[in-house]
Design brief:
heterodimer, A: 412 residues, mainly alpha, two-stranded antiparallel sheet, two-stranded antiparallel ribbon, 6 strands, B: 112 residues, 2 domains, 71% helix, globular
Chain lengths: 412, 112
């Protein structure tokens, strides 16, 4: 924004400052002969302040709706940089829709069109009103967790990849991303496109087709989106800023495009390091709850076949794990599937998911590290030695090097 | 708890978990568990309850944690995460202990 361009908020601040100064003067020394004149001036100031306040706040107030806000969900991990990134990405989506005339109409109140800079929109957060067919609406900054200027600038000034994409309609964001990747960069990367599309598409389906939709997008989906974009943006940043080659952990160098083409999962794995342990655990919580592989695979097959859905969620994660995670989300009421399916089908999916998840509580718990709360590392090492004494461990390693692993005992 | 009883509890859990879990454990290890267990010690496992509600001893849980770490987790990052989790458990316990009145009392007595 140009330095000397004033927003309604600037005007309001200026008026308030002036009023406070005059008020302080009146209370201390007064104005003597000019008392009546200055009192009239202050009354005018009060009127102006009142009008300006309405300009700044009233239109936003009008858009308060009774739904769970994205910000409510963000509070769950309010300081999480990935969530911040993801919300900013979604903020771009809001921007796109705002720029369309249909949405612009929604953004007027009583003939008063709001002239808000786009960067401000990012700070506002938004909610989704399901009754209005998925149209994103804005919430006043004081009702949501607002990002500071510094936070916004920090992210916006980064060379993330979504700056100049042509984003149109509800699928447009990820189509734009896909086009950008495939056409502009010449990378054939359908997996990432597909996964991302599901996240956004599902969220918007949830908004437009489920009458009682209260959650726009779950934290896990935000992680997924943020995670994916984070990975991509790191790759692109590397390409743009550091040069042409991507260096793997093993020291080998590969061209950036080639790296995505040949080892997509390697890239994902590499950049998982950029995510804090806490985020990583949260993101993968659903996967850790996944029951035994075989059962999950069966479930995945039946779900996909029965409902003709594709439950792939993230590159590098198996289908069965994704389905298990999806089942958990269904039960949590946070799934993207809810909106994409009819009510009747949704009920059937929920029933299936319930049956699936309650069937194997013991197996699930073993996969979940929190089940081992209170167990110490030293004790685990001690029990490991009991299970496999050092001399036997050495022998076992030698044996393992010589033969294929085989199964043993009655435990098979 | 004796080592044999620990092996019995771990054996019972592995049986309940089934092939998709035990197939990832090397034969030598499975054989050892089976061989060392206390045949007279009966362990009741309820498959409808999570593992931390089976009433297993801490040692048995620690052995299962070892198995989880060594054989069930395949991703290095997951392994590292689990190790950190176990370490965190220990640190939290030590912290609580250090802050507890009883420890302070013991230390005060030692100082005297």
């Amino acid at each position: 924004m140009p330095i000397n361009e004033h927003t309604p908020q600037d005007t309001l601040d200026s008026l308030m400052d002036e009023y406070k100064q005059l008020d302080a003067q009146r209370k201390t020394t007064g104005w003597g002969e000019r008392d009546t004149e200055m009192a009239a001036y202050m009354a005018k100031l009060e009127t102006q302040i009142s009008i300006t306040k309405k300009t700044v706040l009233a239109p936003l107030d009008a858009y308060r709706v009774q739904t769970t806000t994205l910000a409510d969900r963000l509070n769950y991990t309010g300081r999480n940089p990935l969530v911040k990134l993801a919300s900013l990405v979604l903020g771009r989506l809001v921007k796109t829709r705002y720029e369309q005339s249909a949405f612009r109409k929604q953004w007027t109140l009583d003939g008063l069109e709001i002239d808000t800079s786009m960067d401000e929109l990012y700070r506002l957060g938004f909610v989704c009103n399901s009754e209005k067919k998925g149209i994103m609406e804005l919430k006043p900054a004081d009702e949501v967790r607002a990002f500071s200027d510094a936070e916004v600038q920090e992210v916006l000034s980064s060379p993330y990849l979504f700056g100049d994409m042509n984003m149109v309609d509800r699928y447009g964001f990820m189509q734009g991303l896909g086009q950008f990747i495939s056409k502009d960069l010449g990378i054939d990367c359908p997996q990432i496109h597909l996964n991302a599309n599901i996240v956004i598409e599902g969220a918007l389906h949830g908004a437009s087709e489920v009458k009682d939709a209260r959650v726009l997008i779950s934290p896990r989906e935000l992680y997924g989106l943020g995670y994916m974009l984070n990975t991509l943006s790191h790759e692109l940043r590397h390409q743009w800023q550091k040069g042409k080659d991507y260096i793997y952990e093993d020291g080998s160098k590969v061209g950036f495009v080639e790296s995505i083409r040949s080892k997509p999962y390697k890239v994902t794995s590499r950049h998982r390091d950029n995510i804090t342990g806490e985020v990583y655990r949260e993101f993968h919580l659903g996967y850790r709850l996944a029951p035994a592989e075989v059962d999950a695979r069966e479930y995945a097959r039946s779900m996909n076949k029965k409902y003709n859905i594709d439950t792939h969620f993230e590159a590098g994660i198996s289908e069965e794990q994704n389905v298990a995670a999806a089942a958990i989300e269904i039960l949590n009421g946070e799934t993207t599937l809810n909106g994409a399916l009819s009510q009747e089908t949704r009920k059937a999916v929920i029933k299936n998911a319930q049956e699936f998840l309650v069937k194997y509580p013991l197996q699930q718990s073993v996969l979940w590290q929190e089940a081992f709360n209170g167990i110490f590392k030293d004790k685990v090492a001690q029990m490991g030695k009991m299970l496999m004494p050092d001399n036997e461990l050495a022998q076992a390693k030698e044996k393992a090097a010589l033969r294929e692993p085989k199964q043993g005992g009655d435990l098979r | 708890m004796t080592a044999a009883k620990i092996f019995s509890e771990v054996y019972a859990i592995l049986q309940a978990l089934g092939g998709s879990f035990t197939s990832k454990i090397p034969a030598d290890v499975l054989e050892r568990i089976e061989k060392e267990r206390d045949m007279d010690y009966t362990v009741h496992i309820n498959e409808n309850k999570p593992i931390d509600r089976q009433g297993l001893s801490g040692d048995s849980m620690a052995m299962l944690a070892y198995i989880r770490l060594e054989y069930w987790l395949t991703d290095e990052q997951d392994k590292q995460g689990f190790l950190e989790f176990l370490k965190k458990n220990e640190n939290e316990f030590n912290e609580k202990l250090a802050n507890s009145g009883s420890l302070r009392a013991i230390l005060a007595r030692i100082k005297k």
